Amino acid sequence: MQSLNSNYLFLNTIDNEKENLLNFVKKEIYPIKKNQYPNFFKMEDIKLVLHEYLHKNKFEFAVKSHSDHNYKITCQKNNYGICVQLGNIGSFGLDIHKLNDCFKFNVIEKAVVIIPQNSLIKKMNSGNNASLERISDRKQYWSRQFLMPTLILGLGIIDR
Fold first, then answer.
1. Which of 4, 17, 85, 107 could pair covalently with 149 via S-S, beta carbons 3.0-4.6 A apart?
2. What is the mean pLDDT of each run of 10 residues along the chain (160 residues)?
3. Is the pTM of this model over 0.85?
């Protein structure tokens, strides 16, 4: 059996925004860590579990910022935009643009981006991912890319 663990990084936040983001994540997302799972074999398995959990907890899926396109963030709840990005770092960049567009059109006020930690990438034999460690190493750069207060939530994995 396996369970998920997490660490986080704040971008573009002041103290009260950090507290709000962290409280939201603790209430709405962290409970997923209490569960144990059969062995994950690939990132898609974890993504499916995350999507099922968020759907069960009444997040609104396939959120578009504007009617002039079909780009969507993973989901949103209470003005928090969520992107689950367990794939290539290039897709992480596209998620930033989608979140910024949602922020620009007042669809969201804050963002949470769920990405893997290096331990998870190694365990899944994955490749050129946006990891929490990779984003942390270039925090100033990534802070300039996000328009809104953002919490980057890095998921790791623990074998039980």
1. 17
2. 88 96 94 72 86 95 94 97 94 96 98 95 89 97 97 88
3. yes
Max CA pair span of the chain: 47
pLDDT for 36 equals 66
**Helix residue ranges, H only, the chain:** 15-28, 43-56, 89-104, 118-123, 132-137, 139-145
Residue 57: what residue type? N
Q: Round to whole Å and give the CA distance between 14 and 94.
A: 25
User: Shortest CA distance to 40 belongs to which of 112, 92, 113, 116?
Assistant: 116
User: 55: domain range?
Assistant: 2-159
Count up the domains in the chain and report the number.
Answer: 1
Q: Using DSSP, how many helices (H) and how many strands (E) does the chain show?
A: 6, 6
What's the CATH code of the domain at 116? 3.40.91.20
